[in-house]
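Before going further, learn to read the protein records used in this course. The integers have meaning only within a learned vocabulary of local backbone shapes. The record below shows the convention in full.
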Amino acid sequence: MPVSINKHHLLVLFLLLLSLLPLSVFARQFVVVLSQDDLKDTPSPTSDDLFNGDSSEWDEVSNSDAKWDDELDPGSWRPALEPELLSDFQTEDEALYYSGLRKMISAASSGDSRLMEVAASEIETAAAAGYSHAQSAIGFLYQMGQLKERNKAKSFVYHHFAADGGNIQSKMALAYTYLRQDMYNKAVQLYAELAELAVSVFLISKDSPIIEVRLHKGAEENKDDLRKLHGEEDEDFQIMEYQAQKGNAAAMYKIGIFYYFGLRGLRRDHTKALSWFKKAAERGEPRSMEILGEIYATGAGVERNYTKALEWLTLASKQQLYSAYNGMGYLYVKGYGVEKNYTKAKEYFEKAADDEEPGEEASGHYNLGVMYLKGIGVKRDVKLARNNFIKVANAGHPKAFYQVAKMFHTGIGLKKNLPMAIALYKLVAERGPWSSLSRWALEAYLKGDIGRAFLLYSRMAELGYEVSQSNAAWILDKYGDRGMCIGESGRCTDSERHQRAHSFWWQASEQGNEHAALLIGDAYYYGRGTERDYLRAADAYMHAKSQSNAQAVFNLGYMHEHGQGLPLDLHLAKRYYDQALEFDRAAKLPVTLALTSLWIRKNYANSFLIIDSLPGFYPKVEAWVENVLMEEGNATILTLFLCLLTVLYLRERQRRHAAAAAAAAEDGVPPNHVN
């Protein structure tokens, strides 16, 4: 939703629709509501504040050479997933850690609990010697209850020591733990640090997407979207590759993007990406010229070369690709390959901001915001900086999320609000290099290695990734009987599996996943993985109802109808059934049956015809109609049932008419006048 900002700041409400990826299948939308109170005047920053007017503090990229993902994520699981990346280990503890990690991943794939024991033993030995990355893995095992008694306190201690030793994934786990416990002061410090690390690997205009794909839609596999993510084996990709090989520059650029960021189920491969970008650029493709310029300017995957960077960016800008002016402005503001010139830098950023393509102007506004925030070449103006950042955040720009988060964190430009700062920092932090585990999890799932996928999604879930939490829970519910779930003493018992799935769904529901909230309600209603508790079931359904979930609203109506966890109230039950139909027209059949049940309950309270089962078919109405109702025998039964209801209705009508006639006769009213 576009945000209008007037120069006097007289607006009452901003709605910032912040998405983590351009495709909705990959991410949830995040909505930030800014009130007039948030936008009230705040103290201007002083020289001692967080921001100073030195271009060396430019947030895009630091002066040092760009760091590789593994440098920003020490102890990364990537070498265990890509054995070819393993080199000579510097210490015996490091060798033991990666040996154990490889065995743990292999054991997850095969469901071999004995191999998992060996893996845990090796990792524990390294952890006991003080190797921080092994301590992080042990914290994960305690959190999961995997060959360890599930113990959140021990998990916290191990993650605490690991984080002190520099393990970034443990910092993510701790930040998420603090967030869940409403310990905002500690959570905001960690998430701010993690977000800053994540921002440091972004390109000038292109942001690193978070590769989180939801495996399911409701209770069913998300087949339509997963079909497009089979990498080089995908038919659509092969067609695009064929077009690229035949000289289609646009196809070359897209394939380059896929390889550079690891999209569409492909492994990241900067070498292949650069090759495709260069081929496309040679054919005049401006977007490829721009990204080559940014890559050479930042040293992202290549050795920095500012001369080449300026050449490519200049060529792109000459083809009216306005976003290329951002890279040129960056070179001038930093003085890379050119003489530092803030005036010229500002002119280039303003040109980029004038881009008429929706969303393409975002980086220009962002860079102008940084200049005004820090007073680089312009008079410092925090309000103008804030307005630029808000406009860019509205376009889904993660660097702008980071700046708005800092304003909420420090109280400069916006009223101090730690929960809002944490939410925005978290969005940015989740784009850091440590998110690459989700790529490996998806690849494993697509290849049928459910155990490995579950292990990796479980690790991501511990770090606070909502999509991974729901994916791990869904895998347990759908494939748990395959034996890939390792519990405290070997393969998971049914109780352990249900409890683990319940925990994942609960965490996902806390982060706004309505399907997870619905399943938590079902778990309490039926006693799956927890004790049956109708009151908690009703609370969970109410949470899902707040997100307009028709199934949850229907279930609340049922619980009111039967007095389970909610007061027996047939009128309120009807209101909920009607509301379910308003939320989802596909609910017409179950709502009709439920309303029929209410009518029978009201008029034939002692009849055996009361419908007394929570309709589990509602989410699959179309399939239920096709597979059940369309069967000849079932259709006959349903017809007889409807005939029976018709007979009951007519008998009831006849009874009421007779009663009315009798009452009229007593009053001396002629029968002809009885209606």
